[in-house]
Amino acid sequence: MKWIVLALIVLAVLWVIWAYNLLVSLRNRIQNGWKQIDVQLKRRHDLIPNLVEAVKGYMKYEQDTLQKVIDARSKAVSSSGVKATAEAENLLTQSLGRIFALMENYPELKANENVLRLQEELTTTENQIAFARQYYNDLVMQFNIRQEIFPASLIAQFFNFKPGEFFSVPETEKTAPRVDLSLPR
Amino acid sequence: MAGDLQRREPQDFAERQARNRRVSAGIVLLFIFFFLAVGLSVDYLYLDAFTPSGPPFAIATVVSLILATGITLTSYYQGSELILRSLGAEGLDLQLPEHRELHNVVTEMALASGCPMPKIYVIFDPAPNAFATGRDEQNASVCVTTGLLTLLNREETQGVIAHELAHVRNDDILLMTLVTILLGGIAILSDWAQRSFNVSRSRQGAGGKSALLVIPALLLILFSPLISRLLAMAVSRQREYLADATGVEFTRNPLGLAKALGKIRDAAMPFQLASRGTAHLFFVNPLRRSVDDREGRLADLLSTHPPIARRILLLYQMGGLPGGLKG
User: Fold this and answer.
1) B167 is a domain residue
2) Which of A94, B131, B275, B294 is deepest in the core (most CB within 10 A)?
3) Which residue of A has its CA nearest to B104?
4) Which residues of chain A neighbour B109 with C-beta distances below 8 Å?
5) Which chain A residues are Cβ-neighbours of B113 within 8 angstroms?
6) Residues in chain B whose Cβ is within 8 Å of chain A
7) CATH number, position A119
8) How far is A118 from chain B, CA to nearest CA, in Å?
């Protein structure tokens, strides 16, 4: 009888250690995921002035849009914390998207190798931000679920784990894309 | 239909990895056992090893065991390099815009999948195709042909790379690499056994040996290429569907991959460098065989790749679109 009780206690302690370690490792992976996003955001901040400089000469009638991008960038650079950063960066993504759309109207830009290179660099940075965010949010979801489901939630409360913060997606991206199914004739 | 697939396949990466490692270990054991059996039968039938007049120890058995261990270790540690070298793969030249774009796309997908950055190679060949190899996430390589880079746009290349990184993430690459090299090993062995069989038959008849043992040995020799083929085929088809689904989990864009498959199918270019031994590695079957376009249990057993039409259909269904579209 004594041995059974002892075995149960040992098992319980092992389970506590396991659950605690899982939470800690998830928290570290989330921090690492956030760093990945941060690296890409910094890279984008560095690339944007170069792009604006390169296209300014061509896009004479779009100075307003270019100025908006510059403003959005400086706002994003100075923001801190997951939520504020996410908002500022989403604004920047939108204004950049507008520039890319406008660039389609200037055929000379497509012949400029420097611009093309910058555009590819910025495209990949945008994508990397999106994918890093996707991965980060998946991790945060796993972490939060782990903290909420029953036996593990006791551990989370006892060791005072806080739920992770999502890097939110802007409203415009949340709406499902509309797909045109009419066949071209 | 996608529902069935998901029910049969493990949901979680860790589970898929564990299963693939189990199958890999099984294949290595089977391979060593196969060598042992062939070595023993060669010893018994042709070298008279277990009689007083024979050699002092079972030479063929020992040689074939050493050979099997050597090949297994080589294929584990060097397999990906051997495969890449035999296909003439080269590293990226980041001065070229196309290669830079490929590098960027792979970086993006590595981020999305949570894998470390794999090594990237290209093969200078007009046939559009791609494959991944290596022994684990840390030692993975992704390789595409230049034909793929010229044929596909950014979105489609992303779909293909996501599919390849799904193979990396699911730990399919270790299994595929082992199968490729061990397959070569079995082919060498069966050639060798056949030759020694011919030689000994011309020297003396099979007299004195029990006919009961000659027949299984002969069967082994005759069927070894078939066994190895079946092995490659059995491990591949479900994994391709699963890698498509996992790739879409990374890109969240089933249409990119579906369009890539459609373009590659319409290009219809067989890849000259691939052989029956390496075919199962590739994104689409490099050897155009009609069995790949069929469905059903026999085709599932005999083919390394699922029919492209069905892959496209499943991808359109994932995207919530009717699969009947000509993609």
Assistant:
1) no
2) B131
3) A124
4) 131
5) 135
6) 97, 100-101, 104-105, 107-109, 111-114, 154, 158, 250, 252, 321-322
7) 1.20.1440.20
8) 11
The reply to whether B27 falls in a domain is yes
CA distance A118 to A99: 13
Q: What's the token pair of residue B174?
A: 């270790």
Cβ-defined contact of B105 to A179 (cutoff 8 Å): no
CB B143, CB B89: distance < 8 Å: yes
- pLDDT digits 0-9 by tens, B156-170: 999 999 999 999 998
> Is position B209 within any domain?
yes
Tell which residue, B70, B81, B155, has the closest CA to residue B121: B81
Between CA B111 and CA B108 the distance in angstroms is 5
Closest in A117, A127, A181 to B108, CB measured = A127
Q: What is the pLDDT of residues A50-92, one digit of tens each?
A: 888 888 888 777 888 888 888 889 888 888 777 888 888 888 8
The residues pairing with A166 across neighbouring beta strands, listed in sequence order, are: none
- Cβ contact (<8 Å) for A128 and B100? no
Q: Per the structure block, which two tokens stand in for B143?
A: 């390789």
The candidate with the shortest Cα–Cα distance to B269, out of B257, B259, B282, is: B282
In this complex, do B321 and A181 lie within 8 Å of one another by their Cβ atoms?
Answer: yes
Whether B63 maps to a domain, the answer reads yes
List pLDDT tens digits, range A134-168: 888 888 888 888 888 888 888 888 888 888 888 77
Q: Which domain holds residue B69?
A: 9-83+175-233
The parent domain of residue A118 ranges over 33-128
Query: A128 at the B interface (CB within 8 A)?
Result: yes
The identity of residue A41, as a single letter, is: L
